[in-house]
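Limitations
The structure tokens in this dataset are predictions for the assembled complex, not deposited experimental models. Users should treat interface geometry with appropriate caution, especially where small molecules or nucleic acid strands are included. An illustrative entry is reproduced here so readers can see what is and is not provided.
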Amino acid sequence: MTTPIISLTDHSHHSVTHGRLVLEDGSVFEGRSFGYEQAQAGEVVFSTGMVGYPETLTDASFAGQLLILTYPLTGNYGVPLPEFWEHNRIHISGLIVSNYIDTPSHAQSTMTLSAWLKQEKIPALEIKDTRLLTQHIRDSGALLGKIVFESDIPFYDPNEENQIAHVSTTSVLKLGTGRKKLALLDCGAKQNILRCLLKRDVELTVLPWDYPLFESGNEWSFDGLLISNGPGNPKFATPTIKTIQTALENTIPTFGICMGNQLLTLAAGGDTYKMKFGHRSQNQPCQMVGTQRCFITTQNHGFAVGEVPEGFTPWFVNANDGTNEGIIHSSRPFMSVQFHPEAAPGPTDTEWVFDYFLEKLETSK
Ligand SMILES: NC(=O)CC[C@H](N)C(=O)O
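Predicted assembly:
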């Protein structure tokens, strides 16, 4: 039997390119490039999750954002097939990690994270102290930033334009068969929302964010309306807000997730605001209002519900900072959550929220 020869990981055969993460306040973090070498600007956000980078990178709610992963090891299990992603491509604008692992080991892995990032033209830097960087953002609040190599580019604020229009579907998609007919307004929906619904005896029609659902000629009978997650500032989604308003006027059972929570709030007359820094991870504690029950949830948001609309009560609050995590109408079948009941990545503890909504479809008939 031959003795395996284990060589220490040697990156010397790769030519090492260095890049910089430049923040709008002037701070600069040097790093080693392991993605596509092209400058990108966006809002710098951090995720404190420990797993799930393939799902996270493909979550369309990250459009326009440069993502820092605070968990120090990234890449060690490679990249699975697209059927395990949350959308058909990477949506972050750039990636910052502490230690990139270029030697993945996982049965489902098809390539290295570096190869994937290069293929999808996403820049990535390995910088030494992601902890210092994250603490800096936490103290100063959300910051714009850019990953640059040789030539400089201007800063870009993704919250100043409609991001949803860039990621929503452009065609109507009918999926599954089932006892209940649901319409989903796709603001950049994570695929696991679709999977969670389709395994629950549902016929699902996925619609563009601005689909004129209640305009004559477009009406068809459905039992409930869903509004997905999505990137950017909810206040740009005026057509979606109008559609939700009509649904509420007609007492159509309505359920929102993340961006959907914010859009239901705006449609019902409440308000949203930009948080100092967002919640992004799979370890966000949410307490169900009026109970001692606390759920560990997956999240990815930088805006939040401020003023809860009339007729609604807070459904969940974040146990870390007391921010709103969901609203529910006191007598009608209207509800939404700021966290992700579909998880992906993360704990599935709140998947019951889908069942809760589907039960409401029965009782509200
Ligand atoms: N994941 C989401 O739907 C996020 C909603 C919104 N873009 C925010 O950052 O708050």
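Some entries come with short summary sentences. For this one: Residues 17 and 272 are 41 Å apart (CA to CA).
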